[in-house]
């Protein structure tokens, strides 16, 4: 099977599994948004895949999550208002670019994935980042971001298995002709 076809099968099967898994968790306190899983999964491939891509993706995504959490905490200070919140988001955005000076965090869009996923998860759950419990949106986003990277590595490994040619068995090897 070609690499593209193997990856298509792998991502198709695991994409369906991701929806089933996150859909099963939907009735629990840990509502894992499937769209965050898919964004982190894409981040894994953008960062080259493999163990290195998993490390860089998870680190970048979680750095974005941390910057978003700090931005949301600061924007939630009483009396901040829209202008204050806008300034806080601007500072958070600048921080995402500044941390990209580190080699491990050099791909800014992967950091933005973590930031946006965190803000989106807060919006979807309707819970503040200070919510105490398993349904804390920062915890939920972190789980989804790491899960996405794990789905990325799993899809890459499965595609690798699907592209391997079976080794010929001794009985199917061409026989030498005797002279």
What does this structure look like?
- The structure is a single chain.
- With 179 residues, the chain is mostly helical.
- It has a domain at 36-152.
- It contains 6 helices and no strands.
- α2 runs antiparallel to α5, α2 (34-46) crosses α6 and α3 (50-75) runs antiparallel to α6.
- It is elongated, with a radius of gyration of 21 Å.
- The two termini are 38 Å apart.
- 32% of the residues are buried.
Q: Give a quick account of the main beta sheet: strands, pairing sense, barrel closure.
A: none
Through-space gap between termini? 38 Å
Average residue pLDDT: 90
Please state the structural category. mainly alpha
Low-pLDDT parts are none
Q: How many beta strands in the DSSP annotation?
A: 0
Could you tell me the strand content as a percent range?
A: under 5%
Helical stretch count? 6
Order of helices and strands: HHHHHH
Helix content: over 70%
Give Rg in angstroms. Answer: 21 Å
State the shape.
Answer: elongated
Oligomer: single chain
């Amino acid at each position: 099977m070609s690499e593209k076809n193997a990856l298509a099968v792998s991502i198709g099967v695991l994409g369906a599994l991701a929806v089933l898994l996150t859909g099963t968790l939907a009735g629990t306190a840990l509502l894992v948004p499937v769209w965050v899983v898919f964004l982190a999964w894409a981040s894994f491939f953008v960062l080259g895949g493999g163990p290195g891509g998993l490390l860089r993706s998870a680190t970048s995504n979680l750095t974005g999550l941390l910057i978003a959490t700090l931005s949301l905490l600061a924007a939630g200070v009483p009396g901040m208002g829209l202008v204050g919140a806008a300034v806080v988001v601007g500072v958070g955005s600048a921080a995402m670019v500044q941390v990209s000076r580190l080699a491990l965090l050099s791909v800014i869009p992967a950091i933005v994935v973590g930031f946006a996923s965190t803000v989106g998860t807060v919006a979807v759950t309707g819970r503040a980042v200070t919510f105490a419990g398993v349904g804390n949106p920062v915890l939920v986003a972190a789980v989804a971001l790491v899960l996405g990277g794990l789905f990325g590595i799993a899809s890459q490994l499965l595609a690798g298995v699907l592209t391997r040619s079976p080794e010929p068995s001794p009985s199917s090897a061409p026989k030498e002709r005797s002279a």
